[in-house]
Amino acid sequence: MLSWRLITVPLKILLAIIVLYVVWVLFAFRDIPISELEKKYGGNNLQRFDIDGVSLAYKVEGQGPAIVLIHSHYWTMRFWQPWVDVLKENYTVIRYDLTSHGLTGPDPTEDYSRKRASVLLEGLMDHIGVDKFSLVGSSTGGAIAFYYTATRPEQVRDLVMINTPGMPRLTNKYMERGLPSWGGYIFYLLPQEIFRGFLQAPVVDKDLITDEVLTEFHEMYRGSGNRMAEFHRMRGWEKTDPAPLLKNITVPTMVMWGEDNPQLPVESVDLFEERLINAERVEKVIYPDVGHIVPFEIPGQSLADVETFIAANLEGAQ
C-alpha cells in the first residue's frame, strides 16, 4: 500500500510547477502600456479623438471620396495597410481601432455592442468633418457597418460586408449559456505560441501567420485593459437575427465571402441577400480557397473588387 507521503510529494511538486508557471506567464505576458504600443505600431499620421471616455486611435490618409474601413474582431486597423496603400491615391481613407482592440483599448462603459460602436463611429465622423462615405467592414467590423448603415442611412453611400456574422445558425452551447464572470482572467495565462493556432484556424494558407504577425497580434492583445475588454465583448455577443435592420438598408451593398470560411458558412451570403430586400442592389462575391480573413488572405484581389464596386456607385451618383 502506497504511503501518504509517496502521494503528497508528487502533488506538491506538481502544484509548485503550476504556481511557477502562472507567475512566469503573468510576468512575461503582462499588460503592455498603450503608449508603448503606439511607439512601436502607431506609424505615421496616427491621431486620437476622445469621446465619452474612449480615446479612439485613428488615421486619415489620401484625398477624394471618403471610405471608412472597420477591421475584424481581434485584429487592428493595421489589418488594412495593403488596401490603404492603394486607396489613398484616389480616396480619403479613414480607419480606426475598435474599442478593446489595438491602440484604442477598453471602453469604460464595458458596452461593446453594435449600437455603442456606431455611436462612437458617428462621433468620429463628426469630428473629422465627413458626412458621406463608403463603409467597409470585415467580420465584426461588417456587423457594425450594417448596423450603422441601417440606422444612419443618410451618411452611407454604399456598404461592403466581408465575412460578416449575424445570420441565424447553430451556435456553441457554452456561449449560449454565457461565459463565467471569472473567465476573463484565463486570457492572462495564455502564452504567445497558443495564439498561432488561433490565427491559423480561420485562414486557408497557414504560412500567412508568420512570427511577425503572431508577435504583433499578441502584443496588441496585451495592450493595457484589452484582454479583459475582449472578455466583456465576448460576454455581450449579439445573436439576434438582423433582418429587421437589414431591411432598412437602401444603398448598394456588396457581400464578400471566403468559400472555405470555417467560422461562418458560405450559405450566409444568400441569407444576407434575402434580408437586404430594399437595397438598391446586392452584389455577391465568393472567393474559392479563401477563409474568414479575406482582406488579409487576398488583399489584391479583394481590393480590386471593392474598388470596382465603389467606383461604379460614385459614377452612378453623378
TrEMBL record:
Keyword Membrane included in the entry's annotation: yes
UniProt xrefs under Pfam families: Abhydrolase_1
Q: Can you tell me where the transmembrane regions are?
A: 6-29
Record-linked InterPro entries: AB_hydrolase_1, AB_hydrolase_fold, AB_hydrolase_sf
* Cited SUPFAM superfamilies: alpha/beta-Hydrolases
* Keyword flag Glycoprotein: no
Q: What is this protein called?
A: AB hydrolase-1 domain-containing protein
